[in-house]
From TrEMBL:
<keyword id="KW-0812">Transmembrane</keyword>
<comment type="similarity">
    <text>Belongs to the G-protein coupled receptor T2R family.</text>
</comment>
<keyword id="KW-0716">Sensory transduction</keyword>
<dbReference type="GO" id="GO:0016020">
    <property type="term" value="C:membrane"/>
</dbReference>
<feature type="transmembrane region" description="Helical">
    <location>
        <begin position="51"/>
        <end position="73"/>
    </location>
</feature>
<keyword id="KW-0297">G-protein coupled receptor</keyword>
<keyword id="KW-0919">Taste</keyword>
<keyword id="KW-0807">Transducer</keyword>
<keyword id="KW-0472">Membrane</keyword>
<dbReference type="GO" id="GO:0004930">
    <property type="term" value="F:G protein-coupled receptor activity"/>
</dbReference>
<keyword id="KW-1133">Transmembrane helix</keyword>
<dbReference type="Pfam" id="PF05296">
    <property type="entry name" value="TAS2R"/>
</dbReference>
<feature type="transmembrane region" description="Helical">
    <location>
        <begin position="26"/>
        <end position="45"/>
    </location>
</feature>
<dbReference type="InterPro" id="IPR007960">
    <property type="entry name" value="TAS2R"/>
</dbReference>
<dbReference type="GO" id="GO:0033038">
    <property type="term" value="F:bitter taste receptor activity"/>
</dbReference>
<keyword id="KW-0675">Receptor</keyword>
<protein>
    <recommendedName>
        <fullName>Taste receptor type 2 member 40</fullName>
    </recommendedName>
</protein>
Length: 109
């Protein structure tokens, strides 16, 4: 564990504080997700109302936001994400940027 902090706390305490921040953000995201889901399930608003659309977007986005926070709060996962992004940049745009698409692109030959 590296001691990159400028404070006088130990690295163990810093790691625990970082973990608590991640857990609290997960808790808040799940609360917002639950409230938006309750609003959708109770049919308070019509389906075309702006509030209903906003609740749908929140419910759909919460799992992705949870994953992003998890990746960005963990240095090893962040490093792996950077490696994957660098690897994905190597593939041409015409095939969708995917190594699978490159292997299955037999129609252009």
């Amino acid at each position: 564990m590296q001691n990159n902090s400028s404070s006088f706390r130990s690295p163990c305490v810093e790691a625990h504080i970082q973990a608590m921040k991640a857990i609290m953000s997960f808790f808040l995201i799940n609360i917002v997700n639950f409230i938006a889901l309750l609003i959708l399930l109770t049919n308070i608003y019509q389906e075309t109302a702006a509030a209903s659309v906003a609740c749908t977007i929140i419910v759909d986005a919460c799992p992705s936001v949870h994953s992003i926070i998890l990746i960005l709060s963990n240095p090893k996962l962040k490093e792996t994400l950077i490696k994957v992004m660098r690897y994905a940049k190597q593939f041409p745009k015409r095939s969708g940027g995917s190594p699978i698409a490159l292997k299955l692109d037999w129609t252009t030959h």
